[in-house]
Design a protein that fits this description.
Elements (H helix, E strand, L loop, with lengths): L19 H14 L10 E2 L8 E14 L4 H15 L10 E5 L14 H13 L4 E6 L7 E3 L2 E3 L2 H7 L2 H7 L3 E4 L8 E4 L11 E4 L1 H4 L2 E4 L4 E3 L3 E3 L11 H9 L4 H8 L3 H6 E8 L2 E2 L9 E2 L3 E7 L2 H18 L17 H13 L1 H6 L2 E2 L11 H9 L3 E8 L6 H10 L3
Parallel strand pairs: 1-17, 2-18, 3-4, 3-10, 4-7, 10-13
Antiparallel strand pairs: 2-16, 5-6, 8-9, 11-12, 13-16, 14-15
Length: 414
């Protein structure tokens, strides 16, 4: 990759990649104040995603509470217990290949990335159930791993080794698949089921054509640009970096595009289960750093429905923000989504992809998220898939505190 020191007129205009997210707000505000043409964004999108109707469906969320400081074995047992309560694995035939999609956006440990215990527990369970091969993989965020046809910087392999994903996979009998290591042409276009805001096909890795099933292992986190990063947002890791550019640059439909990745035909056909180990939650800032909330009772939960999973995950994020995060963590710098996500996003576009894309990038309005009905990504997913379901919580050990269950249910009411 080209020199990071100074502006090169093509891609980078901020020194020090790893300093960017800490300084982008100040830099972005300065650019806006300079009166540079286009610096306020190509257009401002007033985000007004209609609240979908109720689908009439009931989706089960299997959930287990774990005490703070639960040991590895307890968490592994919870992964197994929750997964087996969520699905009967009738979709898995002997010898099938399963891809476990993790979240390895940065070299920061869980909960900034997927818990290695989720990977270990799910791999062992799938192999026990008859999977012939389990692949574990992701592609890190462009701040950490940048990949274009003739230029690559960073390594997802190094990231997943640092955060424990590589060892968790290999030691449990899985193979590890790093998208950028397969080459720029190991991606192709995939269409969505419904009409989308994307300009054309989304560019996703070809490995999706070769596997029989996908299991998603996200984490629960705030996100400075999108508000939240749960299961739906984890799909960004599938995108080649040119599709990531479109998502961030053409940000008038930023929230909608995130949801619509999950509406690609291949993911609709192959995603079987979404499971989160959420004994810790990144409750502010995100996606790479922020306040780590570790409540008295942590959760492991799963569902065959990605939408239902994220409805519960949003409630858990909000619970941790309300009851397990000190008030002082919600300052402007500690929780920037509440103030200037669009400015940060445009600075991000310019830093990664250059001044031309920065100049042409769109702005968007943040949305105050108070429930599933005000989360624009979740609302768009519900709109795509027939409306919001009702959630039925299955407490697999009977130890889920009533106040947490009631809170999650309230935040998911439509």
């Amino acid at each position: 990759m080209k020199s990071m020191n100074g502006f090169d007129g093509n891609r980078h205009f901020c020194p020090g990649r790893r300093r960017f997210l800490k300084t982008a707000g100040i830099a972005g505000a300065g650019l806006v104040g300079m009166g540079i043409p286009g610096c306020s964004g190509k257009k401002v999108q007033a985000t007004m995603i209609a609240v979908p109707v109720h689908s009439g469906k009931i989706e089960r969320i299997s959930i287990q509470a774990l005490p703070r400081g639960a040991g590895d074995l307890e968490i592994l047992e919870a992964v197994r217990r929750v997964a087996e309560a969520s699905t009967d694995f009738s979709w898995l035939s002997k010898g099938d290949t399963v891809f476990i999609k993790t979240v390895a956006n940065s070299p920061n440990p869980y909960p900034a990335t997927t818990s290695p215990l989720a990977i270990r527990g799910m791999t062992l369970l799938l192999l026990e159930k008859g999977a012939g091969k389990v692949l574990v993989g992701d592609k890190s965020g462009v701040m950490t791993v940048y990949h274009e046809k003739d230029d690559q910087d960073g390594s997802t392999r190094e990231v997943m080794t640092t955060v424990g994903h590589h060892a968790a996979a290999v030691d449990s009998g899985a193979s590890v698949h790093y998208f950028e290591e397969e080459g720029y042409d190991a991606y192709s276009g995939f269409s969505t089921v419904s009409k989308s805001h994307w300009k054309g096909e989304l560019i996703l890795p070809n490995i999706l054509n070769d596997v029989d099933h996908v299991v998603l292992l996200p984490r629960v986190s705030r996100h400075m640009l999108a508000g939240t990063t749960l299961g739906l947002k984890a799909a960004v890791g599938w995108l080649r970096d040119d599709s990531r550019l479109e998502m961030h640059r053409d940000a008038g439909s930023f929230f909608e595009k995130i949801a619509e990745i999950n509406d690609t035909v291949v993911l609709r056909q192959k995603l079987r289960l979404t499971l989160s180990v959420a004994t810790k939650v990144l409750s502010t800032k995100g996606p790479d750093e922020g306040y780590v909330a570790e409540p008295e009772n942590g959760l492991v939960f799963a569902s065959e429905s990605l939408l239902a999973h994220d409805m519960a995950a949003l409630g858990w994020l909000m619970w941790n923000r309300e009851f397990a995060t000190p008030e002082g963590e919600f300052s402007w710098s500690g929780d920037p989504y509440t103030g200037i996500p669009s400015t940060l996003n445009r600075g991000f576009v310019g830093y990664i992809w250059g001044i031309r894309h920065w100049y042409n990038s769109e702005s968007y309005d943040p949305v105050t998220i108070t429930s599933v009905m005000t989360d624009p990504v979740i609302c768009r997913a519900a709109d795509l898939w027939g409306g919001f379901p009702s959630l039925e919580f299955e407490d697999v050990t009977g130890k889920l505190p009533d106040d947490i269950k009631d809170y999650l249910s309230r935040k998911a009411v439509v």
